[in-house]
């Protein structure tokens, strides 16, 4: 059974990575569609948690997303399969593009293709933002809604560095969880 999962995990991340143009955030929706909606290996709430871990970790989000999903599904062998699947397509594509870079940079048709792809990528990124924002608003937790709005305002309007925002909201999450557990009389594990 594990070989089947590893093979499916490798092929899925390979496929997703091969068609993820425009940045790593595009892969978030594709990972959700594949592993939550199609394969039903992960539920939506857990997927959003995994995405949050991937986003808050250093490195490319596509690889980080593959790592956390791979680990969740099959442990260390899952990480290996998911990473390989995620890095092979960009490695090959970038190798080819860099070899032909001079011809590509001034080619009218390549530029037109890239301009069209930017529009599609923008739509997918909006979809990711909508999915993640919806998962927070569905909780109807006023504190989480204030944190989300404050983080948006701090980044978009006040131009606060995203690193500081991530560190602050992570700290707020830890403090809030510890406080809630303390009030319940539970001991965090």
Describe the sheet with the most strands: none
Count of separate DSSP helical elements: 8
The succession of helices and strands, N to C, reads HHHHHHHH
Radius of gyration: 19 Å
Uncertain spans: none
**N-end to C-end Cα span:** 31 Å
List how many beta strands DSSP finds: 0
Level of helix content?
over 70%
Q: What general outline do the C-alpha atoms trace?
A: globular
Notes on the structure:
By secondary structure, this protein is mainly alpha-helical. It has a domain at 2-105. Helices cover 83% and strands 0% of the residues. The protein contains 8 helices and no strands. It has helices at 2-18, 25-38, 44-56, 61-99, 101-105, 108-138, 142-156, 162-184. The longest helix has 39 residues, at 61-99. The protein is globular and about 65 Å long. The chain starts with a helix and ends in a 5-residue tail after the last helix. The model has no long low-confidence stretch (mean pLDDT 86).
């Amino acid at each position: 059974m594990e070989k089947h999962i590893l093979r499916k995990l490798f092929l899925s991340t390979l496929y997703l990575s091969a068609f993820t143009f425009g940045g790593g955030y595009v892969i978030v929706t594709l990972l959700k569609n594949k592993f939550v909606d199609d394969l039903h290996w992960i539920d939506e709430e857990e997927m959003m948690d995994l995405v949050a871990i991937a986003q808050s970790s250093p490195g490319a989000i596509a690889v980080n997303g593959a790592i956390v999903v791979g680990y969740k599904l099959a442990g260390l062998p899952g990480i290996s399969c998911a990473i390989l699947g995620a890095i092979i397509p960009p490695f090959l594509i970038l190798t080819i593009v860099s070899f032909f870079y001079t011809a590509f940079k001034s080619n009218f048709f390549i530029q037109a293709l890239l301009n069209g792809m930017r529009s599609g990528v923008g739509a997918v990124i909006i979809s990711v933002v909508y999915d993640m924002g919806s998962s927070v608003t569905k909780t109807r937790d006023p504190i989480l809604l204030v944190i989300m709005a404050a983080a948006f305002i701090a980044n978009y309007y006040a131009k606060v560095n995203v690193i500081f925002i991530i560190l602050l909201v992570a700290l707020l999450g830890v403090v809030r969880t510890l406080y809630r557990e303390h009030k319940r009389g539970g001991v965090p594990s």
